[in-house]
Amino acid sequence: MTGKTRKCFFGLKVDRQLDGDKMNRTFVDRVMTEGGEGVAIAACMQCGTCSGGCTNIDRMDLSPRTLVLMVQRGEWDKVLQSQSLWLCTSCYICTSRCPRGVRPSDVIEAVKAIAIRQGIENDSTRFNQIFVELIQKRGILFEPELMQKYGGISAMLEQAELGIKLALKGKMSPFPAKIQDPTTFSQALEKAAQS
Amino acid sequence: MKYSYYPGCSLHTTAKEFDMSTKVVMRELGIELEELQDWSCCGGSVAAGVSHDVGMAMAARNVALAQKQNLDLLASCSGCYNKSARAAKALENETEKQKITAILSDMGISISDSNIRVRNVVDVLANDLDLTSYIQRPLNGLKVACYYGCLLTRPADIAGWDSPIFPMSMDRLAQACGAEVVDFRSKTKCCGGPILVSKQEVAFELTKQLLDEAQSLGADCIVLACPLCATNLELRQPEIEKKYSVSYQLPILYITELIGLALGLKPGKLGLNKHIVSTQSVLAKLGI
Ligand code: SF4
Ligand code: SF4
């Protein structure tokens, strides 16, 4: 590689080619460690099939295809700052369609976890963290608590009408359910999250 | 046939009718359910995106409990089903299995080699038996849109019993019940469930598109198998109507409720009176 930007065949820029020497193993490895062995980032051939079917592609700043490329290239900032992480609904359309078994949805899931650990903060990271925290607490999610912790009193009030309707139908209890031994459960998960 | 039944957080709260209808329909069809003892939340679509290991362990815990009961795990909720099946698959991988085993053993739970399968109620109803001989009250004249969403049949290496993009099992079940199934093109488009709270506007837009299509097809109701989809499509339907100045009043039924009606079971026993969007129009159409 010369480093100069010259055109290749068919007007493809050299830096758009899937050249192995642009790959940044550190980030790729980190994502693969987080996401498990199923995540096959290096296999991506940039066909764009994932982006073509993506639920929220028209709202994303990085398409799933570009996101995978940026992970390959080790573009930490671009990837971790991307709004796409929080617009992804984990719908698995990309993973179902990818002809190379890359599992973009799992790549994104792993990147989300890394972003949270890096200290990225927004409404989505806050919600996701509270969600997990509350499951850890009792083993069973108590939705009113989730709404209260995430949105405060105003969110509670906003949802009060629906909450009352649900309660009248016997579909919402004022008391949270829990598993037999929430303490051991939550300690084990706490330890797993630290490691 | 007997299963360990995993209701998950929603079926004891907002999706009570899914719990009720699953139980009575299964009993009617001669399938035994034994509730999974001390089950916990599967972590949904969120947990593994905060920590992969935590998410996998949350879901694997229920698989381990089903192993202990030595019964295939049956989940009605698509989300619980998907995450449990994903965990069961992860346990086939040595590295993942080691990590998960370590976390679960800290909880005092052990993983055995007992090979239990994780099933969804739609899979069992569509593929293990033939409903036709059980039908007591054919749902003639009822037009339904079957909505599969994301987690019921995707991805294929986790579900694999129906197409991830254009599944047909619920359509076939509804047809066996005598209902007319409309050609619902959005059947596997996402409703935005996991981002409903943090990105409400986006989720509302996605859900609105589904309601719009079902309405334009003249569907009397949408039929589904996911409480999170139902939260968007039913519980938030009035808000969506208000926000976009539209009117749907479209009943959202769980597939087990629809089947229960065709089996001749009483609507009250199936939980049809528990809905936020009234199901009266469906019952009226059927003359019940
Ligand atoms: S579909 Fe797969 S191979 Fe194609 S761009 Fe997306 S991740 Fe890469
Ligand atoms: S999982 Fe995320 S990236 Fe993949 S298609 Fe769905 S929304 Fe798009």
What keywords describe this structure?
heterodimer; A: 195 residues; mainly alpha; Fumarate Reductase Iron-sulfur Protein, Chain B, domain 2; 2 domains; 11 helices; 56% helix; 0% strand; globular; disordered N terminus; B: 288 residues; alpha/beta; Glutathione S-transferase Yfyf (Class Pi), Chain A, domain 2; Rossmann fold; four-stranded parallel β-sheet; 13 helices; 45% helix; 10% strand; binds iron/sulfur cluster; metal-binding (chain A)
Task: Outline the secondary-structure elements.
The complex is a heterodimer of chains A (195) and B (288).
Chain A (H helix, E strand, L loop, with lengths): L24 H11 L13 H5 L10 H10 L2 H6 L2 H4 L5 H5 L6 H15 L4 H16 L4 H16 L1 H9 L13 H13 L1
Helix pairs in contact in A: 1-7, 3-7, 8-9, 8-11
Chain B lengths: L1 E5 L1 H4 L4 H13 L3 E4 L16 H18 L3 E3 L2 H13 L3 H13 L11 E3 H7 L15 E4 L22 H8 L3 E2 L18 H17 L4 E4 L2 H9 L1 H8 L7 E3 H8 L4 H4 L9 H7 L2
Parallel strand pairs in B: 1-2, 1-3, 3-4, 5-6, 5-7, 7-8
Helix pairs in contact in B: 2-11, 3-4, 3-5, 6-7
The complex binds iron/sulfur cluster (2 copies).
What does this structure look like?
- The complex is a heterodimer of chains A (195) and B (288).
- Chain A has 195 residues and is mainly α.
- Chain A has two domains: 17-118, Alpha-helical ferredoxin (Fumarate Reductase Iron-sulfur Protein, Chain B, domain 2, Orthogonal Bundle), CATH 1.10.1060.10; 123-194, no CATH class.
- Chain A is built from eleven helices and no strands.
- In chain A, helix 1 crosses helix 7 (104-118), helix 8 crosses helix 9 (143-158) and helix 8 crosses helix 11.
- The relative contact order of chain A is 0.10.
- Mean pLDDT of chain A is 86; it is low at 1-5.
- Chain B is α/β, with parallel strands linked by helices and 288 residues long.
- Chain B is built from 13 helices and eight strands.
- The longest helix of chain B is centred in the N-terminal third of the chain and has 18 residues, at 52-69.
- The chains are: A mainly alpha (195), B alpha/beta (288).
- Chains A and B meet through helix 6, helix 7, helix 8, helix 9 and helix 10 of A and helix 3 and helix 5 of B.
- The complex binds iron/sulfur cluster (2 copies).
- One iron/sulfur cluster binds next to helix 6 and helix 7 of chain A.
